[in-house]
Amino acid sequence: MNFTDYLEAETEDTEIIFKFYLEYLLNFSSKDFTYEDQLQLKGIVLKFSNCIHEVSYFEKERREKFNLIVENLIKQLKSYRRIKRKSSPFLHLFNPLRKDTISHVQETFEELYSMSIELITETKKRREYKTNSLELNGFYLPQNSNKEEIKKLINEAINLIHTDNSITEKTKKNIIEYLELVLKRLEREHVNWSTVIGNIKETIIVLGALGSFVGGLSPLFEAKQKLEETSTVIQKTSVNLNFNTINKTFNINNIEKIGEINSAIILLNEENKNNDE
After folding, report:
1. Which of 38, 160, 192, 230 would staple 219 via disulfide (CB 3.0–4.6 Å)?
2. How far is Cα 223 from Cα 203, in angstroms, rounded to an integer?
3. What is the greatest pairwise CA distance in the chain?
4. How would you class 145 by CB atoms within 10 Å of its CB: exposed for 0-12, middle for 13-18, buried for 19 or more?
5. Cβ-contact 224, 207 below 8 angstroms
6. pLDDT by residue (tens digit) across 56-86?
7. Phi, psi at 24, each rounded to 5°
8. What's the pLDDT at 124?
């Protein structure tokens, strides 16, 4: 991966971003903070910071502290670069100003590196917690959801938002880009369904709030309905009905509708058999 690929990487691809970021920092330090690497420092750190902010939770005060460390490092590196240019190689060894400056650079760099490791560790723990899906003994398998139907409904919602003239173009753009991000996530081989479902629910809330101000038969309400339909699709296609999951999930003797559940399982098995034939 090169610098451009790193900047264009999806923020969800944390492993790729974290790996490149840490390798860059280590190389940056080992090569005595070369000017070429300094030019990339701000962009690389900003991408890392945005990634932490989007996939985890980057508290305002902590983010401000992180940004301050970066700003200090950049200032110190400018001073260090000036001293390097003016001093001869021989005088480098006896230049107290250079020694003092490089000492500050190294201290600030170590502070940046340590905080980066802390943020990566915490983010991984939070993501691990978030990605633990509620499977209920295999009863609920969101990975079985009909992705194509969900994408179709989201695209229909996007088209409806495009036609609405009650909100500004900037508002439309923000909502549509957010939904397009959901579509990108659905294209991945391993979909984080907790994130996708959360994104859709969040958009439903926003569209409902906007629609309540607009009133009337706004396309925003229709777009909201399309997104609500995705929940129905997920519910219908992610529930795994078989005798094993039923027995592990329910207290059979305490369920009045167990006959209906058994009938549903038999019907489902017959449909699967016909499809196989």
Report:
1. 160
2. 10
3. 90
4. buried
5. yes
6. 777 888 899 999 999 999 999 988 877 766 5
7. -60, -45
8. 81
